[in-house]
Specification:
Helix content: 55-70%
Shape: globular
Strand content: under 5%
Structural class: mainly alpha
CATH architecture: Up-down Bundle
Length: 163
Amino acid sequence: MTETQNAHEHTPRMQMAKVAPEVYKAVLALEIAAKKGLDPALVELVKIRASQINHCAFCIDMHTKDAIAAGESIERIVLLPAWEESRHFYTEKELAAIELTEAVTVLTDGFVPDEVYEKAAKRFEEKELAQLIAVIATINVWNRIGVTTRLTPGHYKPGMYKA
């Protein structure tokens, strides 16, 4: 392959919304309920970080574009995978949310550590923390659907899917 040639775009394996509309609507309803009352910028950072960990290119594409459209800086998005070395770009509340996102997303490392949970519990009111946990759980569901069904990145436009 030369520098000017691109690899072929894969096609989706299935369209979950068409094949299992009740499931799709249920996950969408969970997402809408989960993010209610949370800072939209924080929600997008959480969705981007979980999607990076889960290698869901479609979700990374979507949530990066949504974050930029909502005014998020490219710099903060680009530095998100290295947040521990670029902590000064994020608030303490955002850092607690990002760290909790990683702990909840990578459960193969064990349970969510008490110190990670406690950091988040200090930065978020109890209802906010419950909402944050639900946002993290929901993006992990979307990531698994996206990766398994091979949703194709690159075609999403901000606002295409309203949730």
